[in-house]
Structures are given as C-alpha cells and as structure tokens.
C-alpha cells in the first residue's frame, strides 16, 4: 500500500486530498498544527476521516515531522495563505461579517504577534524546508519512487498583493531543484469551492464569490466567446476541491508526470 503524507490535511483542500487518497487505497497521514481531524457535520465524511492518521507537527520545525518523512512515498504541501491577515479565512468561510474592503486590504502584516504569518514564510519557506528535508531522507527501498506535491495557484487576483503569486512561483522553482531526489508536482488551481459544502450552504461568502465568478465566466464564454486574451487571463474558471484532489492523485499515480499541473488540466481530469 502506497503512503501519502499531507501537510495541512485538515484544511479546506487538504481534507479532500486525504479523502480521495483513502478512497484510492492509500495509507494516509495528515500533519497539522492541531493534529485534529476537520470538523464536519456530514455523516458521509466520518467513514474516511476514521481511516486517516491525524498527527501534530510544527511545519517550521523539521524535527517535529522528520520521522514521518522516512515512511512516506508521497508528500503533499497543502499549507498557505491568500492574505497576510488571518481574519480573511474566517470571513471567506462565513464566520465573520463579510466586508470586501477588509478582504482586499493589504500592507504591513497586521498579525504583529505572529511574524510568521507572511507569504514569504507560509507560502514559500515552509515548502522549501519540507522539500529540503524530504530530499535528505534515506530510504531502505531506494528503488521505490517518491513524489512531492505543492499546492500553488493558477495566478494572482485583481486587488491581491503581488507577493502572493511571487511567493508561490519562488517555492515552485525551489522544489523543482530537487527533481533528482523526488518527482515534483506543482498544482495550480484557481478559486476553489467544495461540492458538498456548496450543496449545503448558499449564503456563505465562499458560495457567493463562486456564483459571481461563474457568472463572469458565463459572460466571457457566451457573450465574448473568449476572444479577448486580457479578459481570459483575468476571468478564470472556478474549480472544486474534489476536482483538484482527483487530478492530483491521478498525477501522483502517473510515473511519467512531473512539473506543473495547470488549471485547464485539472478541469479536464
């Protein structure tokens, strides 16, 4: 049985990566700051959740997770931030009153008590540290292929600081330097929603943003025929966490694939 180690496995995308891997027969371990499984009210989620090993680590302290790398055939880095302000996660998930002005506000890191909550640390440094540690691990079965997958991004969004996509691309470049030690997979999804959550929630912020983006994509398809490249680059398709997870696991199981998994490829999978 092939093993999968997911950093951030209890997150919005990470939980679906864990679920898809369990359903495909992988032995799955999730590492996160809390070490706890995701909270869910869906009874259909509980079966796969019980099959995942939920463990605790500090992603900035390799000593807290090195032992898990020794037995990992495949590693996934599903940790990152969209804004350098942790309150946006609560807003976009509908836990706080949504204010678009606050969501797109940027500048000096407002989390003064947490200097690590930056693009440079969360999106880039954690990934490069993990890649470095994974490349050092000596395996008894050296003939068995290993992969490292990084959840990157399709591109930036209007109003989003350039540091976001810059940190993602720099992390990608650093990970690719280890392609002699493992097969790198760089996943570039766009705006993500969860198919199960979307069927249960219609008023949360993420669902509202999804509907707006899908309407814009519809207009680009049917009214403009996707003839204007600038608009095509600006208005990108939405994608579900389930689609991203399925596409990722397909590439992990495809020994000839390495490099960038584009949004278009994810949608076709």
TrEMBL record:
Record SUPFAM superfamilies = NAD(P)-binding Rossmann-fold domains (SSF51735)
Listed GO molecular functions?
protein-containing complex binding
Q: In what residue span(s) does the NAD-dependent epimerase/dehydratase domain sit?
A: 5-78
* Gene3D superfamilies to which the protein is assigned, alphabetical: NAD(P)-binding Rossmann-like Domain
Coiled-coil segments = none
One GO CC term, this protein: mitochondrion
Cite a single Pfam family from the UniProt record.
Answer: Epimerase
Q: What is the official name of this protein in its record? A: KLTH0G14916p
């Amino acid at each position: 049985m092939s093993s999968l180690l997911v950093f951030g496995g209890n997150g919005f995308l990470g939980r679906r990566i864990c679920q898809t891997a369990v359903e495909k027969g992988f032995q799955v371990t999730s590492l996160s700051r809390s070490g706890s499984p995701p909270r869910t009210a869906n009874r259909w989620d509980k079966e796969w959740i019980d099959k995942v090993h939920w463990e605790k680590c500090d992603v900035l302290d390799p000593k807290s997770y090195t032992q898990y790398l020794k037995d990992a055939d495949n590693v996934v880095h599903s940790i990152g931030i969209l804004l350098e302000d942790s309150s946006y996660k609560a807003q976009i998930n509908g836990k706080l009153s949504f204010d678009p002005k606050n969501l797109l506000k940027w500048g000096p890191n407002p989390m003064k008590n947490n200097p690590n909550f930056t693009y440079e640390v969360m999106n880039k440094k954690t990934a490069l540290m993990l890649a470095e540690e994974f490349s050092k691990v000596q395996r008894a079965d050296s003939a068995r292929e290993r992969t490292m997958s990084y959840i990157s991004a399709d591109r930036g969004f209007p109003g989003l600081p350039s540091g976001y996509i810059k940190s993602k691309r720099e992390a990608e470049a650093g990970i690719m330097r280890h392609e002699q030690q493992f097969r790198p997979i760089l996943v570039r999804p766009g705006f993500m929603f969860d198919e199960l959550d979307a069927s249960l929630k219609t008023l949360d912020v993420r669902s509202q943003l999804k509907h707006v983006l899908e309407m814009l994509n519809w207009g680009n398809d049917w009214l403009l025929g996707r003839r204007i490249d600038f608009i095509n680059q600006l208005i990108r398709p939405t994608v579900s966490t389930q689609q991203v997870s399925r596409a990722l696991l397909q590439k992990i199981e495809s020994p000839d694939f390495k490099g960038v998994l584009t949004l278009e490829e994810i949608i076709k999978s």
